[in-house]
Amino acid sequence: MTASLIRATNVVAAALAAVCVAVADEPPSSDWSPPPSAASTSASTPTLATGELPTPNGDASDATEFGGPWLLGDAVVGGDVVEADESSWYAPTYWFSGTPWDTGIELGLNGSSGNNKSFSIRTGGYVKRESRFSKLDYSLYYNRTTTGEETTQNNATTDVRNDWLLDDSSPWSLYTKANLFYDQFQAFDLQTNGSSGIGYQIFKDPLINLTTRVGGGASREFGGPDNEWVPEALFGFEYDQCVTDTQKFSATLEYYPEFENFGQYRLVADGGWEIELVKPSNMSLKISANDRFDSTPNGADPHLVNYSVLLLLKL
């Protein structure tokens, strides 16, 4: 078997060597010259400056449709840089601005100095995208408070959820969601959970929305006394309403009982009130509050409450 493999390898190597020798002995081809018809045509073609691209049909007004060596597809016409059309696929605003995207950044600060120094910050943001058959919702928030040299609050959370609509006229949907939570003063290093299930939209109106969800999944507290996956159910709702043309109220509630013992559970409640400002028009004042309750805190406070008044900048 080994001798046959060696002979086959030698035959292939000899064939490759023969091809290389034949290519090396081939005389060089004569210089190519264009036919007379091509030469006459090229004589009438205008000379392009270095770095320019030809425009279709000689119309310089169409140059903005072709990306060249300029940033974000910008073209150069008559020595001037013409910005790319925002509706083009290569423009960043095509992917992260306007319908169906909704993005925003939040920031709130509070501090004092004197006999006692304190500083508090809450920051974060969200990204939402809604199409005909799906809705994506992602958020990230961070809270920190220091008094003198001591840190009294330090936590962060991120959530992602995707809803698949069964039909644009049906109230039923399928969803999957995941969450990561960190708190310096909890008994664990990192808490995570994931779940999936079904949702039902009770009210579907531009001014009011009420959606309920039922599902199941599992959670785990890494680095804590209960460092194992725990199966749990999910019952929750999401509500938002446009109170006026410039004010909006929103609230969510999620109840996570353990499958084996419904007396052990987690509860996450969140509420917010947004007031749009006149100028700038893409900025709002937001009042928010969040409460995370754990029936098995392992020595820590079972309630973690965050509340703030901050500015919301919509991108």
Description:
Helix content is 12%, strand content 52%. It has three helices and 14 strands. It has helices spanning 2-25, 36-43, 92-96, and strands spanning 75-77, 80-82, 101-112, 118-130, 134-147, 150-165, 172-183, 190-205, 208-222, 230-242, 247-257, 265-276, 283-294, 303-314. The longest helix has 24 residues, at 2-25.
Overall strand count: 14
Give the overall form: flat
Question: Alpha-carbon distance between the termini?
Answer: 69 Å
Largest sheet: 12 strands, antiparallel, barrel
As for the number of domains, it is 2
Q: What is the CATH architecture term of the largest domain?
A: Beta Barrel
Q: How would you name the CATH homologous superfamily of the largest domain?
A: monomeric porin ompg
Strand content: over 45%
Helix content: 10-25%
Radius of gyration: 32 Å
Total count of helical runs of at least 4 residues: 3
The computed structural class is mainly beta
Kindly report the spatial arrangement of strands forming the biggest sheet. 3-4-5-6-7-8-9-10-11-12-13-14
The overall average pLDDT, rounded, is 79
Order of helices and strands: HHEEHEEEEEEEEEEEE
Q: Briefly, what CATH class of the largest domain?
A: Mainly Beta
Q: What ranges have pLDDT less than 50 throughout 5 or more consecutive residues?
A: 37-45, 48-52, 58-76
In the CATH hierarchy, the third-tier topology of the largest domain is known as Porin
